[in-house]
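TICKET: design request
STATUS: open
ATTACHED STRUCTURE:
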């Protein structure tokens, strides 16, 4: 039961990362892009949380979850870099 609840939460937030990134890439403005990338960041962070809870609850071994948690962490780093770059370039153009 616990594994199902946590797994469903991880599935929801995990798939939302991609959906928000897709919306960002099709954004009509820089502000919309930045907003959707921020949403993707929130969702990947939440996904990591649910995956960690699956391990902490004993539902999944840390060995089995290691690769998935590593990929989530890498995706978090990529999205963070995209977010920072977008905000930085947005700040430069707004000062001109």
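STATUS: resolved
RESOLUTION: sequence designed for all positions
ATTACHED SEQUENCE:
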């Amino acid at each position: 039961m616990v594994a199902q609840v946590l797994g469903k939460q991880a599935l929801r937030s995990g798939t939302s990362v991609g959906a928000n990134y897709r919306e960002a890439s099709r954004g009509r403005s820089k502000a919309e892009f930045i907003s959707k990338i921020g949403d993707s960041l929130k969702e990947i962070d939440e996904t990591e949380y649910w995956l960690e809870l699956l391990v902490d609850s004993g539902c999944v071994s840390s060995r089995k979850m290691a690769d998935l948690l590593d990929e989530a962490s890498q995706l978090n780093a990529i999205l963070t870099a995209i977010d920072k770059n977008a905000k930085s370039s947005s700040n430069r153009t707004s000062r001109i």
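CLOSING REMARK: The domain at 2-94 is CATH 1.20.1440.60 (de novo design (two linked rop proteins)). The longest helix spans residues 62-94.
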